[in-house]
Amino acid sequence: MSKFQNYLKTFDITSTLTEEDIDKTLALLQIYGPAVRRTASRIGEMEEECYEGRRQSISDFINLAIDYDRDTDRKRIADRLAEMGHSMQLLSVMEDALVLVKDTPPNGGTYFNILQARYFDVYCTSNEEAYLNLGISSSTYYRHIKPAIRAYAASLWCVVIPDLIIREHLQQSGSVTAQVEVS
User: Fold this and answer.
1) What average pLDDT does range 31-36 have in this prediction?
2) What's the gap between Cα 74 and its chain centre?
């Protein structure tokens, strides 16, 4: 390998990934569909419960709960909403990483389409369904699925999650700075 190739390899974020990172990524990808279905189901149940018990929509309930939260029923529902919020945040992080895959050279668009069809389509349950839905050959699908997952893992663990950590740290230090300035 030439010096230039070694130098370029230092910029390849996929080279920093471990097998553990890939395994964690696969686990996350496999729970995406069930998590979306479960969250949608819980939102539907909550909407039904709010309407049946209080004759109001979830948004009306939340607005009312902000003003008055002593009722244990309200606290229970607020806890359920918080749990759904965490699930939605995880799904959002996963979707942010997927969008970044689209710009991954040389086959980012193909990687994006494969990942979208296989893992982010909540109704797709197999690799065969994914490549049939995409209208591509099985050999093309299987040739690109591993690099697609690797590109996704790099986007998730090396870009999106560190960005969230930095953003959270800046918000915390910003609130500390704001408190110091007020004092």
Assistant:
1) 92
2) 28
